[in-house]
Structure prediction request, 186 residues.
Amino acid sequence: MCDWPGCKSEAEHRAPRSREYIREYRWFCLEHVRIYNRSWNYYEGMSDEQVDRLVRSDTTWNRPTWPLGDRRNRASQYDFDASFGPGDFGPGFENLDDPFGFFTAETSFKHAANTAPKTSLSAAERAALATLDLDVSVTVIELKARYKLLVKRYHPDVTGGDKKSEERFKQINEAYETIMNCLLPE
Prediction:
């Protein structure tokens, strides 16, 4: 029977009891469920600030969020240790193992992949080193740092599409690939 006072019709439609008991229902006939739904307001009794906070929380599926790149704020906001592990993966990654030495090995032309020192460089390798303004004793870490610096300087988004800078950017990418292939052969 319909939960509407005085109604004897069959109840075929459910409606939530209240915001606090959203999974508990009252049952109404079609006529009364329409009246109930028209007058029911989920946000009734909430301040504008509470409604805004609830809407924002729902847009992120009720998960915490923080601005990108704001690690210090994130650590203090959620009260966990602000010390970040290798590669800034976050807390709990301090004990990552690196059995192959991919992230700690200092590889250079002199000792590429723990082999005998490389005695002669090809013309392409010498040109690549000159393009990046590096010497023969460069390590992978130094190469990556230099590449990152040059890419930030000559990237088309930074230079506004300048053709000379775009060409220099292409040369930097090719030089980086050439040197990386020499430092870390497959």
About this structure: Residues 74-91, 111-117 have pLDDT under 50 and may be disordered. Helices lie at 30-39, 48-59, 71-77, 123-131, 140-154, 156-159, 163-183. Residues 128 and 175 are 4 Å apart (CA to CA). The two ends are 76 Å apart (CA to CA).
